[in-house]
Structure formats: C-alpha cells, structure tokens
Design a protein that fits this description.
Chain A: This is Transmembrane channel-like protein. The complex is a heterodimer. Chain A is mainly α. In chain A, 75% of the residues lie in helices and 1% in strands. A two-stranded antiparallel sheet of chain A has the order 1-2. The longest helix of chain A is centred in the last third of the chain and has 60 residues. The chains are: A mainly alpha, B mainly alpha. The interface between A and B is large, with 82 and 77 residues.
Chain lengths: 760, 203
Amino acid sequence: MLSGGQVNEIIVEVEHVPSGIQSHPSSSQIVPEKTPVNSNSILVSSISDSDVTDSQIFSNRNDKKGKQLLQFATPLKESFALTLHNSENTGLDTPHTSHENIQGQKLIESLITMTSRDRIKAIRNQPRTMEEKRNLRKMVDKEKSKKSRRILELNCCAQCLNSISLAYRRFKNNLSELLNSISLWQKTLKVIGGKFGTSVLSYFNFLRWLLKFNIFSFIVTFSFIIIPQLTVMEKNHLQFTGLEFLTGAGYFTNTVMYYGFYTNSTIQHDNSGASYNMQLAYIFTIGGCLVVCFFSLLFSMARYFRNNFINPHIYSRGIAKLIFCWDFTVTHESAVKLKQKNLSTEIRENLSEILQENVKLTFNQQFIRFSAHVAAWVVSSGVAITCCAAVYYLAENNLQFLANHSNPGAVLLLPFVVSCINLVVPRFYSMFRLVERYEMPRHEVYTLLIRNIFLKISIIGILCYYWLNTVALNSEECWETLIGQEIYRLLLMDFVFSLADSLLGEFLRRIIGMRLITSLGLQEFDIARNVLELIYAQTLVWIGTFFCPLLPFIQMITLFIMFYVKNISLMMNFQPPSKAWRASQMMTFFIFLLFFPSFTGVLCTLAITIWRLKPSADCGPFRGLSFFIESIYRWINTLNQTPSYLWVVWIYQNLIGSVHFFFILTLIVLIITYLYWQITEGRKIMIRLLHEQIINEGKDKMFLIDKLIKLQGMEKRANPTLFTLERRDLEQWGPQRVRQHDAPRDLRFRQSFQEDNPKA
Amino acid sequence: MSLLYHMTSPSVLSRILARSISLRQSALFSKNKDCTFFTRKEIMRLFYRYQDLAPQLVPLDYTSCPDVKVPYELIGSMPELKDNPFRQRIAQVFSEDGDGHMTLDNFLDMFSVMSEMAPRDLKAYYAFKIYDFNNDDYICAWDLEQTVTKLTRGELSTEEVSLICEKVLDEADGDHDGRLSLEDFQNMILRAPDFLSTFHIRI
C-alpha cells in the first residue's frame, strides 16, 4: 500500500488544491516538483480558468527545445505559489481576473528579461489567442520602455550592438520573406499532399532538397571555375555531331564540361595586377562545395534525429498513433474517403494482431522463418556480388571491346548494363516479400532498403576502384576527362531509364492492373526505391563534380524534369498508399543513408584521388604535378616567402598538418562523447522511474477518490440536512475561507464528473 | 479613367483599391506578424483568402471593423477544410466563442498553428483540444469513440469501436485514470514523430 512518505505527499496535494491560506511549511518545497500534478488538480477546480490554467500547464511543460519557456515557467510556478500564499488577493469576488492579472504580471516580467528574439519566440509559442498575444506584447513593450526610461545612459557599445542586432534581424526577416516567395513548386506539392498524403510528399520534398544542393554547387562552380575559364577559352577544333549528348565525348571533350579543358596557368587580364590562380581555385572550389554539403547534411541529419528518434524500448503497437495522427494535409474528397477506408482496414488488422499477440510460434515455424531469412540474405548478397563481378569484368574488358567495335555508341554498353541491373534487381528483391515473414512491417522495409543500398553502393564502389586503379594509372591521355565522361554516361543512362520507367513502365502497369488483371488494381508509389535512385544519382554527381564541373548543372536539369515526370505519372497511374508509412522515421533514415555510405564514400574516393594519384601530364589545371595536393604545398611555400601571410602558413603547419593537434582533438571529442553517453543512460533510468511514479500516483489518486466517495456516502446518509446547510454557509463566508473549502467541493465535482462519465 | 475601369475586372480593381488601403493594413499585419509564424506577405495573402470567403461581410479595409466574424458554414467550405473529418472541431477550437464563427484573428491563429513552423508542443496542445469533444480538458472514452467514428465513417461496428477505445486507453493512459490528460497525450505524441508533418494544413 502507501508508504508513509507518499501518504504525506498526497495529503498535501489534496489540501493544496487552490487553497489561499497554506500553512504547511513543506508545501513550498513540494510545489516545484508537484506542479505537473498540481496543474491537473487546478484544471478540475476551475473550469472557468481554462485559458489561464491551460497556459500554465503548457508553460510548465518540460520542453527540451524551449529553454526560454522553462525560464519563465519557473517564475510562473513561484508566482502561483505566491498567489496561493498571498492572502491579500484583492477583489476575490472575481478570482479569475485577479489570478490572471498576477499571472500576466509575472509572465510579463519574465518576458522583459529575455532578448527580443527569444521574447518573440516565447510569445509566439504561447497557446493563446492572437488578441491575448498582442496585448501581452503591448504590455511587455510598455513595461520595457518604462524601465529603459529609468536607465539614464546606455553604454555606447550596447547601443551599437542593439542597432546592429536590429538591422541583422530585419535583414533576416526580409531574406526569409524573399526565400519563401521563390519557394519552388509550392502549389504542386500541396496538390500531391492533398491526394496522396504526407508519405508520398516526403519523396518530392527530398527531391526538392537535393535540387537545392545541386543549385548551390552549380552556382559556386560556375562563378569560380567556369567563368574564369570561359574568359581564356581556346578554340574547339572538334566536330559536333548529335551523339555527344549521349556519349559525352567528341565535341564536348574540349569544352568547360570536363577537367581536361581547364588551364593550369594563372589567369591575368591586361596586366591589371589581379591574378587568378586556376589550380588553387579549382581545388578550393570543389573542396568548398563538399564542405558546405557536409555541414548541411550533418545539420539536417542531427535535426531529424532530434525530432524523430524514438526510444526503442518504449515502442508501442501504435494503435493510438493511428487514431491521433490523422493526416490533415489530405484534402481531396476521394482521397479522404479512401484514406478512411484504409484506416479502418489497418485498424482491424492491428486489432487482430493485438488479439493474436499471445500466440507463440512453434519451434518448427520459428526455424522455417529463420531459414527463410537466411536464404533470402544469401541469395540477395549472392546476386549483388554477381552483379558487381559482372560490372568489373565488363569494365576491365571495356577498352579491348571498344577497340574491336568502332561504333562510337559502343561506350554506352557499360552504363546500359549498370542501369539494367539497377532496374531489375531491386524489383527482384521486392519479390522476397512473398517468401519472408517479418514480425514488424518496418523490419521488412529496413531490410529491403539495406539490400538495395548495398547493391547500389557496391556497384559504385567497384566502378570507382576500376577508375582509380586502372584508368588513372594506365591511361596515356587525359584520364580525368575519361572518368568524367564515364560518370556523365552513367548519369544520363540512369535518367533515360527512369524516364522510360515512369512514362512507359508505370503506364503499362496501370493498363494491366485496370483492364487485364483487374485484381491487381492500381499500384502504389514505392517511396523507398525512388528515394534510393535519387541517392544513387546524387552520389555519382558528388564524385563526378571533380572531373566534370558542369555535372551539378546537368543533375539540376535532370531533377527538374524528373519532378514533373514523376508528378504526372503519379497523378495518372497510382493510387494513394494503403498502409501508414512512417514518413519522418524514413526520412531520417534516408538522410542518414545519404550521409553515411554515400557522402563518406565520395569523400574517400576524392581523398584517394587527391592524395595518391598522379594528374595527367598534358591536360587540366594540375598537369605536371606529381600529386594533386602538391598545388597546396607549393602555395603554402610561396606564402612562406611573403611576410604578411605567415599566419596562414602557421595555421597550416600547426593545425592542419600536425598530428598532435588531431590527436588531442580526437581525445577531447571521445571524452565528450563518453560523458554524453553516460548522461543519456542516466536519463533513460530516470525516465523509467518517473514513468513508474506516474503510474503509482494514478493508482493513489483512484484509491483516495474511492475513499472519499465512501466517506461522503456515509456522511450523506448520516446527516442529509446538514449537508445542504453547509453548502449555503460556504457561499456566505468570506472569499478567503472559500478557498479552504474549495478542496472538498472540487473533489465532489470530480466525483460527479466520474458519475457522469459512464453515462456519456 | 473610364477606359481603365473597363479594362480592369472588378476583382483586379478591388485589389488595386486594397493596395491603397494596405498601408494602414500593413501596420495591422506587422502587429500580427510577430504573433504568428507567418511572414507579412503570407498574412496579407491569408487576409485575402479570408476576405474571399465572405466578400460582403469582410470589408477590404479591415481596420474599419476588426470584429467581423465569418460564419462557420463558409469556413467549413474552404477547400483545405471541406473534406477534413474534424473541420467542425477545428473551427470550434479556434473560434472566439467556441461556436465555429471566426474573426480574422482566429483565422490567422488557426492556420498559424497548423502551419509547418509551429512547434510540436503547441500543435499537441491544440490537437488535444480538438480531440476533446466535450471540452472537459480530458480525452475520455466518449471523446475517443467520437474520434474513431469520425475517422472511419461508420466502417467499424460498435464493438470494434469500443475495443479500439479500450486499447488506446491501455496504451496511452499513463496514470491509469481511465482518460487521457494533456500530459498523456503529449507523451504519446512524443512517440509519434509523424505528428508534426501530419498535423499540418497547407494554405
């Protein structure tokens, strides 16, 4: 039953429900811990106070993000204790308004102490109506101006900082307005979301996000590499035939498209003194692009992880989520009806799963399942390895094959084979679904994703190995341009195949589903497969930007066209998804996939290129050097000569080039990681204990309510007339005494509510 | 002048008129800007949407009568809301008197909370109020039954509905008092990362 300490706590809580005069010395200490439960009881007591109390509850939320809210939550908690202790509540015949006034006063005071940005954020996040927020802001501003009048002179520095921060804020506002106005495809996305829901929308959002990467890369490479090169362009003597668009070779070899065209000299015009070192510009631009992509990916990933990471041990079956996470973005009538039907089906399935949860599988069934999984994994890995071997074999014999067949289109064989593999094998993997059975549907999705990404990354890995080991070392001509051309062809073939699949394949599938085999029906948009294709293409672009600086531009155009093609195909050939697809969790996983095998692989490849490979001797910005990185070494050496840039040399030698610095840095990072990990473990234990405490308090509450009902029942039976007299007396007593006796009346209210509840 | 009048359609003319009034209005919108998650331009666009719902009721010069209310029937017929099973509850929660008739402030408030920039806690708070059909600050079994019925449009039988309500209370009720408080609801939303993206109306 209840331990002694717990009984004390609960008794305090019951009496603490809005009683004006508190004489328990321990109550003020208990108030901060008890406030979450406190606010519950306050809810019950004053329904008319719903606005105020709701905001209290909200402000007492332990918001991880909103430290600002916590900041003014604590004064609010104290203020509430103060108002309770304060027996001079004037005008308590309208307790509601004076309560609110004092609450508002404390809130305003806490808002004044914040910076204006935090203040705006805090006011915006308040669950109040617009008018209340405006009044709040007005009052805060008034108080603030009153206070600032008292300050005789502001420090000159503070004034400066103030005006700077104001200008910065205005600039940021204007920038965000501008960015919002040029936001791409807003209406189209709304229509897609309206018909198909958030899950399909996530694919198109991902596409738009990748487009932003490419736009940024293109702008940077265009401004810093392509334009300077265009100013010193040499004449192109090659013939232009139409085949160049497919092969990337021929006329295009001697254009800004490929690495080989770029000069290694320092561009200088009219001896104006301003010189432009092409070598440094090339390496720094590509490096800068990659660094910005890296940080952008990292921050996105971190943000998604923070918002969407579920603690695995409190994962629930999810029927509550089905009920409360209705997709409000769906706006078409037919889509809504379909969604409602699908939801009913899914709820029924979920219910039957729950009812059958206790059915344990026999050993035989478990063994069969396990062996099915093992077999599926073996087959899928075998297929992936076979494909990689085939690609490698083909790549190795490519040169010989090209020598034998003089058709200029023969170079397209390797990309064609790779694209075929990428088209057929993922669909083959999807068929494993018929054989394998999973306990949780999300395991199925994850397994499929891992198999597909393994296939795609292996193919890219094999090709990189081939390029860096064979092409780079054995080639007499410009091997960088050759690699650039290969990547261009791969991308183009992938694009052509995607177009064909969307325009023809899906159309055919619809015809088959609607006319021939009507039991199949319309297909559903396979989000995982499409997103993986985007990731594959983006990996190729990142690798290829070094060898073919125009590649981001090409990918930009590709993504643009793909958006419209996929959109049209979606509207014509697909039906909305029938099962709930955990869009945010999946997005986290996709961005993680984009970061971990994809981007880190790109960094490895480029690092090997820059540090280990010898640039070709007669083309490109790095001709003549023994390593790409030598350009940086030479630059540092020249900087060593000039005395005004010695700090750059110092940074290079002691921070970037020094092993000790990285060792110390790694050690510090490891220590911090270990500390955070321990803190997380501690918090998990805390969460579990608090959870148990909530359950216990709920049980105690029910126990006390039962007891109270019994007592009241006995009292009622004993003294029926006295009972009514007491109530009339209560109303005549002074306002302060009313609070003391509010407690039993409120619990009576709670009891009557309980009685009403089963009726409703 | 008359040529101009004939060339421009009435709606364009009203827009031109609106721009001349907009100086005063832009002061109004700047005041509102910091109270919502929208930029000033979006607030203006939302005002035009609001005005389009009831052009006779809502004057272009909003500053002249800022307390005009658009009745619920017109709000509920907006394309973003007309097929939403909870449109009545949404309008009731955000309206001033809980009857579904909304002023411009309520309108802006509603779309501000339902926009993608509102934080999770704010959305969870309003979602709780929407699902609380009897406005008693708890989601009890009756509220759940109403929610499920609205969601499934009568596809499920009454036994299934009550079974679902039981299961939901089992899963989400932390303090085992037979109904969901705001804390229980917020706790459950924490475990549903999709909530932020699904509780979102694009306008």
